[in-house]
Amino acid sequence: MNLLELESLSVRFGGHLAVSDVSMRVEGGRVSGLIGPNGAGKTTTFNAICGVVTPSSGRVSLGGKDISKVGTHKRARLGIGRTFQRLEVFSSLTVRENIQVGLEIRRSWSRRSATLPQYLADGGDPKPEDEINLILERLDLGPLADQSVGALPTGHARLVELGRALAARPSILLLDEPASGLDDAETDIFGDLLISLAANGLGILLVEHDVALVMRVCSYLSVLDFGQVIASGTPEDVRSNEAVLSAYLGTAPAPDTAEYAGVDLAGFPQEAGS
User: Fold this and answer.
1) Fewest 10 Å CB contacts: which of 34, 187, 191, 272?
2) Domains, the chain
3) Is 43:18 a contact under the CB 8 Å cutoff?
C-alpha cells in the first residue's frame, strides 16, 4: 500500500531550486531510504512532506488524499511523524516525561480523529501507562526513565526523540539521521527496531549517512543529488548504479561492483547544508 506519495515536488528559495521534480513513494510495512550528500535536499524534502515549507510545485498525498495545502499540525494528526537532524527534545524534562508529551498530544487529537495503532504493540492500542513503559523498554530507555534528557549523551537523546514520535502513533515516520551518536552495538539494535516496526505495518522514510545501516534495513532507496532523484530501486540496484557511483566516486562502476558493497557514502564529497 502506498501511504505517502510525492509527485513532481519542487521547492525554491528565492533563486535557488533546492528540490527539483522529486517523485517517490513510502509504503506501509517497509523501510525506505532517502540518501545523498549534504546539500542534496533531503531535509528540505522532509520539510515539504511535513508542511514546514511550501512546495513551489508538485503534490504530497497521504493515503491517496492530497495534503499539499494541509497545515503542519493537521498532517501530524493524519499520521505523519518525524525526528530531526538537529536534535529536538525537552532537555529539562525526564525521559519518561518527553515520551508522555507525545502521548498527551496524540490523546488530544484522538478526540477529533480515530486513534492510530501503536506499531510497537503489534498494531494494538495499549493503555497510556503501558504504552509509555513499552516504548521505554523497546528503546532500552527504562534505566534512564527518570533522568533529565539534557544530561544524556546525544545517542540516547535521539532515542528519546524517537520514543516521543512513536508515542504520537504515526503511520508514516520520517527519520532524519537518527543513528547519529549511536555506537556500533546500539546501531545494530536500532536497525532491528526499525525492521520490527516496519514488519508490524509502519511506513518509515530514513535519511541516514550510515550506509551500512541503510543497506541493511531499507528495502527501497531514492538517491538525491543537487535536489534531484538520480537513482531509485533496491539497495543492490542503487549500489551498482552508474549515476550514483559517478556522482559520489567520480568514476564509472567496475565490471564487478562487489567492491562497493561496503562503501560508506559519508566519506564521499560533501556540500554544506542538507
Assistant:
1) 272
2) 1-79+171-274 (3.40.50.300), 91-169 (no CATH)
3) no
